[in-house]
Amino acid sequence: MITVTTNAAEKLGGIMSQKGMQASHALRVFVKGGGCGGMQYGMTFDTPREDDEVYEQEGLRVIVDPTSLSYMEGANIDYVDNLMGGGFHIDNPQAVSSCGCGSSFRTAQSQSAEGQSCGHNH
Question: pTM score > 0.85 for this model?
Fold first, then answer.
């Protein structure tokens, strides 16, 4: 299961409400290959597909495909607003290393895959 904090749910719910899609869409969280750590996080608004896992938290529906869930099981999505600017942060307990960019990571399953150097200290 992927957890969404109250801050993140409120921010995402506000965006969906502004776009008029709160009733028809959900937050899709996924991973894809690439990035300096070997894998990248992604989030978009989408409708559920037949094989998706669907969770409802804080009034927000979250959908994840089975492959992405295997890399993100137990992850926590938060929204942080500070002097450096606001943004979504994913804390993934399966990530054994991550890049300073915050959107690229590597898991034990993907440890043998070679990621590109990002120039950040890990």
Answer: no
